[in-house]
C-alpha cells in the first residue's frame, strides 16, 4: 500500500492549515483529467467571481447541459453564466427566526431574532429542470426554483428536510428510488440531529424524499412503522451524533459516507459507509459497514471528503476493474486524540473500487444469513444475534437474496462485528497509493466538502473547470 500524505510542518515562511492541505490534495486530483495531464497555473485562470457581501460559500453545482453555475452561500444564492458573469443574485437572509418556530409559521408570542440562512443543500433535478435549494431557516425547509431563473420560486416546501443550524451536516443528492426505479427519482438526504427544537425529532437521519410536485420532498414511501427513512432512536440521538460527509449512487444502491462513534458506549470515532437499495420501500436493506484507511500502522479514521468517478485504464488495471467501473476516492485524516472527532494535520487519499465495496456488503449479509455475527445497531434498533436463514430461491443472484431478506422481514439495520477477532482486519481493504499523472481520473469533480466552517466544491463542464472556495468561484480552461 502507498499513501498520499499531507501533513503540516512548521516553516520559517508559511504554514498551510489542515484544510488548505486537503484542498491542495484534492485540487491535484481535479487536475488529473484525461484532458489535463499537466498542471494548471494562475495564467490558465479564465475568470473569477466574488461578492464582498458574502460571508461564506457552501455549495456549487454546474448544469451539465448548459454550463450555468449555481452557488449556495450564507444569505445568498447565485446564478452565474459559464464565464462566471452574475446573472441572478437572490438574498435569502438573514431573517427573523427561532428554533421554537415551526416549518409553517411562528406564533406571535415567540421571540425571534435575525438569523443567517446557511445554504445546506443545492441540487439540480434534471427531470423537471429545477434547482432545489435548502437553508437552515424555518427548521431547514427548501424551495424549488426555475433552473433558468432562480428568482422564480416554483414551489415552497414547508417540510423540515435539512439541518437547522450552521454547523450540523447535511448531504443531499438525487438518484433512482421508490416507487419504480430507475424510472422514478428521489432525493436522498442525510442529516445530523441538532436537538435544538422539538420539531427535530420528526427529521430522519437518512431518508428518500419524493420529487413529485404534489408530494415534493415528502418521504417517498411511508407506512405505519416503515418507509424510506431511518431514525436514530430517542435514547441515542443526543449522545450519538452522525456527521454526513458525502453521498452517491452506484450499481442499484445509494450510499452515504459518515463519521461517527464506534458504538454508543465508546467515544472512538470511525468512518462508515451507509447503503440502501434503490428499490427498497421500507429501508429493510439499510446497512452500515466501517470503512478503513491505514498505512504503515497509521489509522486515518475520519473521512473528510470524497468523490465517485471512473478510473482511467492504468488505475483500473491496477485495481482489477474496467475503466467503466465506479471508483471511490476519499480523503481521510487522523483523529486529534483517541476520543476526538477533530482531525490532525495529516491526511491520506484512499482509493476503493465499488465492486470491492459491494462484495464486502454482500459477504457481511451472507454471514448474517448463515447465523454469524449480529444484526441491528444499538442506536437505531436493538442488536440481536443473526439467525440461520434458509433462502429458497430459483436464482442465487444478489437481487434474489435481497428480496428474500425483505420477505423474511429481517431488520438488517447494520452488521455488528464488534465481537469478531481483529475486526479492523476485516474491514474494507483500503488500497492507498500515490496518484501519478498516469492514473488519469475521468471527469473528476468534488462537491459538498465542508468541515463545519468552510466550503469547497469543484465541477467540470466541457473544457472548463470551476472551483469554489469560501468567498469566490474560479474557472480555468483545460490545456490540450
From TrEMBL:
Signal peptide: 1-40
SMART domains assigned to the protein according to its UniProt record, in alphabetical order: Sema
Record-linked InterPro entries: Plexin (IPR031148), Semap_dom (IPR001627), Semap_dom_sf (IPR036352), WD40/YVTN_repeat-like_dom_sf (IPR015943)
GO cellular component, one term: semaphorin receptor complex
Keywords: Differentiation, Signal
Sema domain location: 35-480
CDD domains in UniProt: Sema_plexin_like
GO biological process: cell differentiation; regulation of cell migration
Taxonomic path: Eukaryota, Metazoa, Ecdysozoa, Arthropoda, Hexapoda
One annotated GO molecular function: semaphorin receptor activity
Protein's UniProt name: Sema domain-containing protein
Amino acid at each position: 500500500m502507498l499513501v498520499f500524505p499531507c501533513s503540516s510542518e512548521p516553516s520559517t515562511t508559511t504554514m498551510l492549515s489542515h484544510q488548505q492541505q486537503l484542498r491542495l490534495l484534492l485540487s491535484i486530483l481535479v487536475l488529473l483529467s484525461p484532458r489535463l495531464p499537466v498542471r494548471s497555473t494562475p495564467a490558465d485562470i479564465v475568470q473569477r467571481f466574488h461578492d464582498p457581501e458574502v460571508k461564506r460559500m457552501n455549495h456549487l453545482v454546474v448544469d451539465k447541459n448548459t454550463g450555468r453555475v449555481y452557488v449556495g452561500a450564507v444569505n445568498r444564492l447565485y446564478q452565474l453564466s459559464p464565464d462566471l458573469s452574475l446573472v441572478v443574485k437572490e438574498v435569502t437572509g438573514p431573517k427573523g427566526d427561532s428554533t421554537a418556530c415551526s416549518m409553517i409559521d411562528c406564533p406571535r408570542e415567540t421571540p425571534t431574532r435575525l438569523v443567517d440562512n446557511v445554504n445546506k443543500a443545492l441540487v439540480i433535478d434534471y427531470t423537471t429542470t429545477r434547482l432545489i435549494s435548502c437553508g437552515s431557516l424555518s427548521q431547514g425547509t427548501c424551495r424549488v426554483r426555475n433552473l433558468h431563473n432562480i428568482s422564480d420560486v416554483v414551489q415552497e416546501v414547508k417540510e423540515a428536510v435539512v439541518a437547522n443550524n450552521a454547523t450540523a451536516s447535511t448531504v443531499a443528492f438525487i438518484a433512482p428510488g421508490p416507487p419504480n426505479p430507475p424510472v422514478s427519482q428521489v432525493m436522498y438526504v442525510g442529516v445530523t440531529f441538532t436537538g435544538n427544537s422539538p420539531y427535530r425529532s420528526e427529521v430522519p437521519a437518512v431518508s428518500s424524499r419524493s420529487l413529485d410536485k404534489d408530494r415534493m420532498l415528502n418521504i417517498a414511501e411511508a407506512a405505519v412503522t416503515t418507509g424510506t427513512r431511518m431514525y436514530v432512536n430517542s435514547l441515542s440521538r443526543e449522545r450519538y451524533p452522525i456527521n454526513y460527509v458525502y453521498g452517491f449512487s452506484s450499481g442499484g444502491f445509494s450510499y452515504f459516507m459518515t463519521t461517527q462513534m464506534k458504538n454508543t458506549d465508546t467515544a472512538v470515532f470511525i468512518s462508515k459507509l451507509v447503503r440502501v437499495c434503490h428499490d427498497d420501500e421500507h429501508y429493510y436493506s439499510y446497512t452500515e459497514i466501517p470503512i478503513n484507511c491505514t498505512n504503515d500502522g497509521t489509522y486515518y479514521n475520519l473521512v473528510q471528503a470524497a468523490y465517485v468517478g471512473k478510473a482511467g485504464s492504468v488505475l483500473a488495471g491496477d485495481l482489477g476493474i474496467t475503466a467503466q467501473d465506479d471508483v471511490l476516492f476519499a480523503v481521510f485524516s487522523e483523529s486529534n486524540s483517541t476520543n476526538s472527532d477533530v482531525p490532525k494535520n495529516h491526511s491520506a487519499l484512499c482509493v476503493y473500487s465499488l465492486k470491492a465495496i459491494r462484495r464486502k456488503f454482500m459477504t457481511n449479509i451472507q454471514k448474517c444469513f448463515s447465523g454469524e455475527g449480529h444484526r441491528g445497531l444499538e442506536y437505531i434498533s436493538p442488536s440481536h444475534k443473526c439467525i440461520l436463514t434458509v433462502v429458497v430461491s430459483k436464482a442465487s443472484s444478489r437481487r434474489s437474496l435481497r428480496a428474500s431478506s425483505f420477505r423474511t422481514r429481517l431488520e438488517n439495520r447494520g452488521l455488528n462485528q464488534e465481537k469478531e477477532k481483529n475486526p479492523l482486519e476485516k474491514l474494507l481493504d483500503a488500497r492507498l497509493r500515490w496518484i501519478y499523472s498516469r492514473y488519469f481520473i475521468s471527469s473528476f469533480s468534488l462537491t459538498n466538502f465542508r468541515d463545519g466552517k468552510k466550503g469547497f466544491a469543484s465541477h467540470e463542464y466541457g473544457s472548463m473547470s470551476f472551483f469554489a472556495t469560501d468567498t469566490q468561484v474560479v474557472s480555468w480552461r483545460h490545456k490540450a
